[in-house]
Amino acid sequence: MQYRTMPSGDDRLSALGFGAMRLPLAAKRIDEERATRLVREAIEAGVNYIDTAMPYHNGESESFLGRALADGYREKVYLATKLPPWSVEAREDMDRLLVTQLAKLRTDHIDYYLLHSLTRRSWERMRDLGVIEFLETAKEKGRIRHIGFSFHDNPEAFREVVDAYAWDFCQIQYNILDECHQAGTAGLEYAAARGLGVIIMEPLRGGHLARAVPDEVRAIEAETGVSRTPAEWALRWIWNRPEVTVVLSGMSDEAQLRENIRTAEDALPGSLSQGDLAMMARVRDIYRDRMMVDCTGCGYCMPCPYGVDIPGCFAHYNNYGLFGKEPAVRYYFAQMTGIMDKEGYAGLCRGCGKCVRACPQHLPIPDLLQDVSRTFEGPAFTVLRPAMKHLKGIHRHWTNLKNRRYAASGGEES
Predict the structure, then answer these.
(1) Is pLDDT larger for residue 326 or for residue 265?
(2) 262 and 367: one domain?
(3) Does residue 76 lie in a domain region?
(4) Which of 17, 203, 205, 307 pairs with 174 at a CA distance of 20 to 30 A?
(5) Which residues constitute the domain of residue 389?
(6) Which pLDDT tens digit goes with each residue over 74-112?
(7) Shared-domain flag, residues 266 and 315
């Protein structure tokens, strides 16, 4: 296994991290026996960074890992989990959530603790609620070792969050299609230049870059004469960057785990040739040709005075074109732009034109948003959006209640 050093300290982290968000399932629940074997096989092969979060697997991922890391496995890994801002209403909620997470994970400390899925708005809210004091107090007490954040917003917001506190590390979405999306390459370099470790999530765009691979892409990769899968090429492209500390993979079966471990062994910084990089650029261009909108996700069009999440809408629209118009894209559009704390679906657009004047690509954004709305916001969306919003509220209430009971019981499952 290849290891890379976290800049804030001497931790030698495996270049491949295990993301506990896509564990093997049985009857729509975590397949406990198989998932435990998978996690332990990864650790025995040298993987020493395990990432989870409170919402993963409907709230069961942390508890599962607490059991899977018994028998001495906890001592072999660096464990990461996240504070969910959407479950925080007051400063005391932060302490309660951390106590619950420590109990679920059956540990006395979290090695890498993140603020989950930060945007500019959620960061400002958490800052004002006292999250910095919470994090520093928890670190002083030994409950957490390293402080970081995961991120989903535009490049400008990323720089603002990086500069707002002396973070140890960050976690960003990065792959061959996201060089200019969210934090992007500029954010990767910005964070590394300021001494942050960088953890990469979604290296395969939710598995799409391994699963929904166009024939043209396979043909181009075959021209190299090197026998590598599309997933291996995509991962090697990321590990080629010296700024990257760990690449997370949500591995759900043994074949994925073993391929990724094999790939990580020699995917060193600078190991791709110029020919390899040129080939990957051709692959990227094939995917980009399938995009519905030539949006880079720069965020200059934001904020929209009517609340539209313009880059978010276009990202989902592009996924719709890129990956075979999978039905799941419609679900994620409704989830991410229609039921979050601040709705941002395309139909909110009123055609004011402010975004057009700000767009560096000179895109006709209101017209394109109409296309997005026609694609995603039909009768099904009208029904799905309020239903999902209602269910989200129920789930949030149920999760908070369950966590309070869990903490009050001293870690006994209820």
Answers:
(1) 265
(2) no
(3) yes
(4) 307
(5) 310-399
(6) 999 999 999 999 899 999 999 999 999 999 999 999 999
(7) no
Instruction: Kindly indicate the confidence band of residue 414, based on its pLDDT and cuts at 50, 70 and 90.
Output: very low
pLDDT band at residue 385 using 50, 70 and 90 as cut-offs: low
Q: Given this model, what pLDDT does residue 387 score?
A: 61
Asked if the structure places residue 270 within a domain, the reply is: yes
Annotate 366-392 with DSSP letters as a single string: HHHHHHHHHHH-SHHHHHHHHHHHHHH
Distance CA 232, CA 16 (A): 12
Q: 373: which residues sit within 8 A by CB, 6+ positions away?
A: 345, 346, 347, 349
Indicate the residue type of 278.
A
Counting the structural domains of the chain, the total is: 2
The whole-angstrom separation of Cα 99 and Cα 244 is 31
Residues 46 and 93 in one domain: yes
| Residue recorded with tokens 């209640």 | 401
Question: Which two structure tokens, joined as six digits, stand for 397?
Answer: 């209430």
Closest CA relative to residue 229, chosen from 251, 199, 265, 256? 256
Domain membership of residue 182 (yes or no) is yes
Query: Do residue 32 and residue 105 come from a single domain?
Result: yes
Sequence-distant contacts of 276-281: CB under 8 A, at least 24 apart: 276/224, 276/236, 277/237, 277/240, 279/220, 279/221, 279/223, 279/224, 280/176, 280/233, 280/237
If asked whether residues 175 and 321 sit together in one domain, one would say no
| Residue 168 falls inside a structural domain | yes
What integer pLDDT is reported at residue 327 of this predicted model?
A: 60
